[in-house]
Amino acid sequence: xxxxxxxxxxxxxxxxxxxxxxxxxxxxxxxxxxxxxxxxxxxxxxxxxxxxxxxxxxxxxxxxxxxxxxxxxxxxxxxxxxxxxxxxxxxxxxxxxxxxxxxxxxxxxxxxxxxxxxxxxxxxxxxxxxxxxxxxxxxxxxxxxxxxxxxxxxxxxxxxx
Length: 161
Fold this sequence. Notes:
Layout: H1 10-16, E1 34-35, E2 45-49, E3 55-61, E4 65-69, H2 72-86, E5 93-102, E6 112-120, E7 128-133, H3 138-151, E8 155-160
Parallel strand pairs: 1-8, 7-8
Antiparallel strand pairs: 2-3, 3-4, 5-6, 6-7
């Protein structure tokens, strides 16, 4: 059923309801930005190590719930994103988003994917694709270049402080 009711823009709705214009948030998350040690409201619980020697770390986010992250760096960055979300500087974020790459990546005949650590929404632009790394592997570089070439997605690298 098609309605003949005129549609209003978000700016018109905000004005009608006595709200000012949306102020774009400053982009506080920069490519190559170091992640400092931060205090979090939820405790980080460490468990066993993974294949890269990182310690699996549990963190409970008010936005995405309790998760076991593959590294302490990734869990701390999730806590930082929660702080930015609570402050209203980012509208949302998602952990561990997979991008299908197809069959033509290094050494494998089965379909490959690249799991990006965080997809972070912005108030004033497209979402940011961010990956936390203590050490960049050649395989990660190949996949990153393939994603950039095939999908036009730029993946920002977040490293330890």
